[in-house]
Amino acid sequence: MSKSEYDYKNLLKHLVQNVSARIDKSTRFEIPKAEIIYEGKTTIIKNFDKIIDAMNRDANHVMKYLLRELGTAGEKVGNRAIFQGNIPEHQIQNKINDYVETYVICEECGRPDTHLVKEGRIILLRCDACGAFRPVKVRKKKITQEPKETLREGKEYEVTIKDIGKKGDGVAFYGKYIIYVPGAVKGSTVKIRVEKISGTVAFGKII
């Protein structure tokens, strides 16, 4: 084997190893799980700064998205994000995941090596890895008609919280029924299990 051929094979091996390492790194992309705590009637993401760093996105943009999607008010204070109301942890995590899918991950190559570009009122996602360039497709909330069937205790339903009751519970409507859901946020769509029914008033629990 000639020296030139030997050098070529070593260089090729080194190149393949580097490419594989980069691919492995991109497939291991993960956003830290939100660390949630509750203080009175507020919900706090303790590690909001770490989540933002992993996304490589503007904190104000992410905060505005979460406030809109969760249907509540709040603000970023230091390294934390604070929301009004006791918001279930799974709802917050789901919205964070939705943001990553919409505003971070490239649809073409599946990598997070992207950045946002604004042209007029349109937000575009440009991928630095594959060069893809597309408008951001913001998911529209599904508008569903409430079914008219009879509620049953122990059965699961998906409802939209239309209001907040005097005791702080979420209020949803299902046909002729009014359903009170503790811990639910106005404007959110949640899956519940009906625990008790009294006439046309029902009480559900988020699952």
Q: What is the CATH first-level class name of the largest domain?
A: Alpha Beta
Low-pLDDT parts are: 1-6, 19-26, 142-147
Query: What is the alpha-carbon Rg in Å?
Result: 23 Å
CATH architectural category of the largest domain: 2-Layer Sandwich
Q: What order do the SSEs take from the amino end to the carboxyl end, as H and E? A: HEEHHEEHEEEEEEEE
Any idea how many domains? 2
Give the fraction of residues assigned to helices: 25-40%
Number of strands: 12
How do the strands of the widest beta sheet line up side by side?
Answer: 8-9-10-12-11
Count of DSSP-assigned helices: 4
Largest sheet: 5 strands, mixed, barrel
The chain-level mean pLDDT equals 84
Helix-strand category = alpha+beta
Q: What report would you give on this structure?
A:
By secondary structure, the chain is α+β, with helices and mostly antiparallel strands. It folds into 2 domains: 36-135, 2-Layer Sandwich (Alpha-Beta Plaits); 156-206, Beta Barrel (OB fold (Dihydrolipoamide Acetyltransferase, E2P)), CATH 2.40.50.140. Helix content is 29%, strand content 32%. The protein is built from 4 helices and 12 strands; from the N terminus they run H-E-E-H-H-E-E-H-E-E-E-E-E-E-E-E. Strands 8-9-10-12-11 form a 5-stranded mixed β-barrel. It has a 4-stranded antiparallel beta sheet with strand order 1-2-4-3, with helices on one face. Strands 5-6-7 form a 3-stranded antiparallel beta sheet, with no helix packed on it. Strand 6 and strand 7 form a beta hairpin. Helix 3 (59-70) crosses helix 4. It is elongated and about 80 Å long.
